[in-house]
Design a protein that fits this description.
The complex is a heterodimer of chains A (265) and B (685). Chain A contains one helix and 19 strands. Chain A has 265 residues and is mostly beta strands. Chain A folds into two domains: 109 residues, Immunoglobulin-like (Sandwich); 111 residues, Immunoglobulin-like (Sandwich). Chain A is globular, with a radius of gyration of 24 Å. The N terminus of chain A is likely disordered. In chain B, a hairpin with a 2-residue loop joins strand 4 and strand 5. Chain B is 8% helix and 54% strand. Chain B is globular and about 70 Å long. Chain B has a 22-stranded antiparallel β-barrel. The two termini of chain B are 25 Å apart. The N terminus of chain B is likely disordered. Chain B is mostly beta strands and 685 residues long. The chains are: A mainly beta (265), B mainly beta (685). Bound molecules: copper (II) ion.
């Protein structure tokens, strides 16, 4: 008899032992911890416009959310339509950058690429053009873009037509050890105010750890999926500093190469 | 640490002089507790318990004495004396037992039947490294899936039985203390044990403390980073309940620190094992021949590798690992008057292994990965085996065991790591692991015996083979990656054995054959890139179609006179992988001969060892051939007996001619120790 009881007991213990190790994988919801990047009131005092982001803005690609609050009621509202353009103001000139609108309606999401850090006499702002309740507003939203020793940004000059191209990883903040979607954005400079997406390129890449000299297996080169976004797969075998070396082709000719370093946590 | 253990020694000595009187036969109770396959002792059961040794006939006693050598020896020292056994070295500590050329992956090492998972991804801590001979009562070697006691294996099992507190009405307290010093590594050992019993309660405590500096290989070759420190102690308590019941509680702790591994790029700052078990035993039936017991156990190992004491490392790294195992064993043993027996064993276990690696590049953030990503393994097994005489000339033994086990990763981080290979983790299914064996023994005349034994076994892939993540192996300088989809390995074994035994001469020859299918081997993967700086590639553990291992083992013992004997062993193995190429780490032809002579004043033991060159090397493993060597050892000992106490002194010299040599199975091409002079004193009371 004794043995049956004992076995039952240890089985119960074992099951408990196993039970406490179950863990659920939690996918981070977008804008779970909104971080206020910029805030301004309309000149008529009716609305407060906020730009929020999961992270403080950095060089390269940044996703952000726009929220509009009716000041009298404290409730949020949706613009009828809106547009955004990032502008860097320099001492005597200004230039724009790449910008895109990702969603409008209940969720108003956009993205901007900052291709240089702010400095003395140089600062970034996002100009928001909104239509709220039939009225047009134009808002200057100042944003901070500090310099970084590992910018999510790379550029090269095309060996074909000497145009400047810029490249940034759109989903760098979602990277972790393991297999990751890779979403890179490529755009070029047409003029100081015109930074269109580059849609006719072939991109190949190779991840590696510069301090160890090894790479990772089973990566997939990103393929253009629309509006300058190229989707592929990048694998990381451990945390630490990784380098993504890109080679860019146009009409099957290599036109340039560049790299982005990132510190994977 | 050293100070406190010295105090213990002094206390033990003081206690010792209170001990008194004669040996009693009460110890047979103890013998029953350690009821293990005691027949067929030449076939690999070595009884270390002094009580058992003394109760045997003179001839057997010599043999045991001989193999037992001295309790001051380390586990390594005596395991390699067993037929078929070799010890593979990575330095001067924690040698890895190998059997007939099969490594630790095909060797299940248990202590009192308890499963223990080593915690080092680099194989620095075989279970034997957490044991000490003065803990051990018996050592059983199960060759080739025989015996149901160990876990499912395709090679063999090695089970240590620990010493239990002894009930002895005539001597309330007994014990021993010892000291040993060896020159080659400036190695000191001190040890002691004490047994106390009274009215059905008994307690036993023992400890061993060893410390050594760097050792010298032959021809005064200094082997740097080879020192170590170790403290092992255990406490046992037994309580008799009535005539036939007994409860035992046993705790063992082994702590080692600052251990050098010259064959590897890393050392170990700490290795710690803690093992606790509780056993309830009952004997029943006529003459209490039958027994049953239930055991619960828990053990945990912490192993911390680091390279902070190494110069010129490219990048510093930390590689800690830990395991925990919990389990229960229920076993019965039924013996009838004719000596036919049947054993059953039911087992449940659950283990967890975790190892990680952090690298510190200069001026950058650290790099982290999980080399054993939280591996859970649990299983259940049922086994039956028995022995019966079919006629006066024929005996049969047979066994059947079925284990089902499950193994998966628990750490999300680790599961993500494996995503990079596009491998799905963790099909959480039970894997059946059946084991069967059948043996026949037939007497040919009065002195010789012919045996034939066959078995089939299946083993679970180990942690590294299934879920290891870029584990560097310094022997072939490859990074090894596990395969979550790897299948269990199978083996078929056939042993043919001939024994001749007369009153003064024993001769035994065994021819063994193993054929493996799904043989797990690291296979070079040219797509993957090495991770470790300096590694030359990546190998993925794979099920290769087959492998084979054949060989011969010879043991002989001559009693030249009542006081002089000779023991000789010969081992030879030959292994082929799936492409017919040599398997790595196959020991060459090796021979050992030793004589013991009890002279008037002393007992002397000269010994000679010869190993042939190994030129059949595995190119896949970047092995190089190993030259042959001769080795000469000599030992002289003297016992003084008085008042049932014994003082023993041993002086010996190993590798007399200071030969610079290595064995083929050693890692990293490091030399074995050169000339060593040792002095060893022990006092039993
Ligand atoms: Cu280790």
């Amino acid at each position: 008899m004794q043995k049956h009881i004992s076995l039952g007991l240890i089985m119960a213990l074992t099951i408990q032992f196993l039970g406490c190790t179950e863990d659920q994988k939690v996918e981070p919801a977008p804008f779970q911890n909104p971080n206020l990047v910029s805030k301004a009131n309309t000149t008529d005092g009716k609305y407060q416009i906020s730009i929020l982001s999961n992270h403080s803005f950095q060089l390269g690609y940044n996703l952000w959310n726009m929220e509009v609050e009716v000041l009298s009621s404290g409730e949020s509202t949706e613009p009828d339509e809106w547009n955004a353009s990032p502008i860097m103001e320099m001492h005597s000139s200004a230039h724009g950058s790449f910008s895109e609108i990702i969603s409008t309606g209940v969720e108003n999401q956009g993205a901007a690429v900052f291709q240089m850090p702010e400095g003395s006499g140089m600062s970034w702002k996002i100009i928001l053009d909104l239509k709220l309740d039939g009225v047009d507003y134009s808002m200057d939203m100042p944003v901070e873009v500090p310099s970084s020793d590992m910018p999510n940004l790379a550029s090269f000059v095309s060996s074909k037509d000497s145009q400047s191209y810029f490249l940034s990883i759109a989903n760098i903040n979602s990277f972790s050890v393991g297999s990751n979607e890779l979403d890179i954005l490529v755009f070029k400079k047409e003029s100081m105010m015109d930074w269109p997406a580059a849609e006719d390129l072939v991109v190949s890449f190779e991840p590696s750890m510069p301090s160890m000299g090894h790479g990772s297996p089973n990566n997939l080169d990103p393929v253009h999926s629309g509006k300058g976004h190229y989707l592929g797969k990048v694998n990381f075998t451990m945390t630490g500093v990784w380098r993504l070396d890109f080679t860019i082709y146009q009409e099957s000719k290599k036109i340039g190469e560049c790299f982005i370093d990132l510190d994977l946590q | 640490m050293i100070k406190s253990t010295s105090i213990i020694i002094i206390l033990l000595v003081l206690f010792g002089f209170e001990a008194h009187s004669q040996f009693a036969n009460q110890e047979e109770y103890q013998a029953w507790l350690d009821s293990l396959a005691k027949e067929n002792y030449i076939a690999n059961t070595i009884l270390l318990e002094e009580v058992n040794v003394l109760s045997r006939s003179g001839k057997e006693k010599d043999f045991y004495e001989y193999l037992r050598g001295n309790p001051m020896n380390s586990v390594d020292d005596f395991v390699h004396h067993l037929p078929g056994m070799n010890m593979s070295r990575k330095g001067n500590y924690a040698s890895e037992p190998m059997m007939r050329g099969m490594d630790i992956n095909r060797l299940e090492v248990n202590i009192d039947g308890m499963r223990i998972k080593p915690a080092c991804t680099d194989r620095m801590d075989p279970v034997t490294s957490y044991m000490e001979p003065n803990n051990m009562a018996t050592l059983e070697l199960e060759k080739g899936s025989e015996g149901f006691k160990s876990a499912s294996s395709t090679g063999h099992g090695l089970n240590f039985t620990t010493k239990s507190p002894v009930f002895d009405r005539s001597r309330q307290v007994k014990g021993m203390v010892g000291l040993k010093y060896g020159t080659v590594a400036n190695e000191f050992s001190q040890m002691g044990d004490v047994n106390w019993n009274s009215k059905g309660s008994a307690v036993r405590f023992n400890f061993v403390n060893r410390w050594a500096g760097n050792y010298y290989g032959g021809e005064k070759t200094l082997v740097e980073n080879s020192g170590f420190n170790k403290l092992n102690f255990s406490l046992g308590y037994s309580q008799q309940i009535g005539e036939s019941d007994l409860i035992k509680i046993h705790y063992i702790q082994d702590e080692a620190w600052d251990i050098g591994y010259p064959a590897l790029p890393m050392d170990v700052s700490r290795a710690s094992a803690k093992m606790l078990s509780g056993t309830y035993l009952r004997s029943f039936g006529a003459e209490k021949r039958n027994s049953m017991d239930v055991k619960f156990y828990y053990n945990t190992i912490v192993h911390i590798m680091d390279d902070s004491k190494r110069e010129d490392v490219v990048m510093h790294m930390d590689m800690p690992g830990e395991t925990q195992t919990i389990g229960t064993i229920f076993s019965t043993r039924l013996v009838n008057q004719k000596g036919n027996s049947i054993n059953t064993k039911v087992e449940l276990y659950n283990s967890y292994s975790f190892a990680e690696m952090t690298m510190y590049p200069e001026g950058q953030s650290s790099m982290y990965m999980q080399t054993w990503p939280g591996i859970r393994q649990y299983g259940f097994s049922v086994g039956v085996d028995g022995k019966a005489a079919l006629s006066s000339k024929t005996r049969v033994s047979a066994g059947l065991r079925l284990e089902v086990a499950k193994m998966y990763m628990e750490e999300d981080f680790g599961i993500s790591q494996f995503d990079v290979f596009g491998k799905e983790n963790t099909e959480e299914e039970f894997t059946p692991l059946p084991t069967v064996f059948l043996g026949l023994d037939r007497k040919l005349g009065s002195k010789s015996n012919l045996g034939i034994r066959g078995s089939y076994g299946v083993r679970m892939p180990n942690n590294s083979e299934k879920f290891g993540f870029y584990i560097f192996n310094s022997t072939d300088r490859f990074d090894y990656v596990g395969d979550p989809e790897i299948q269990p390995e199978n083996s078929f074994k056939l042993d043919l054995e001939y024994t001749y035994q007369s009153s003064r001469f024993t001769f035994k020859v065994t021819q063994f054959n193993y054929y493996f299918t799904n043989y797990i081997l690291g296979v070079s993967d040219t797509i993957l890139q090495a991770m470790t700086p300096g590694a030359q590639g990546v190998k993925t553990y794979s099920n290769t179609s087959n492998a084979s291992l054949n060989g011969i083992e010879l043991f002989s013992q001559f009693e030249l006179s009542p006081k002089t004997g000779l023991i000789a062993t010969i081992n030879y193995s030959h292994g082929n992988d799936y492409e017919g190429e040599p398997l790595p780490f196959i020991p060459p032809f090796k021979m050992m001969a030793s004589t013991y002579s009890r002279l008037k004043l002393f007992t002397i033991q000269p010994e000679v060892v010869y190993a042939a060159a190994q030129n059949r090397v595995s190119e896949k493993n970047i092995e190089s051939s190993t030259p042959s060597f001769w080795l000469f050892n000599f030992k002289i000992s003297k016992d003084y007996q008085f008042n049932n106490k014994r003082l023993r002194g041993v002086v010996g010299i190993e590798n007399i001619f200071d030969n610079l040599y290595r064995e083929h199975i050693d890692w990293g091409g490091i030399p074995r120790p050169g000339r060593n002079i040792f002095v060893d004193l022990s006092f039993s009371f």
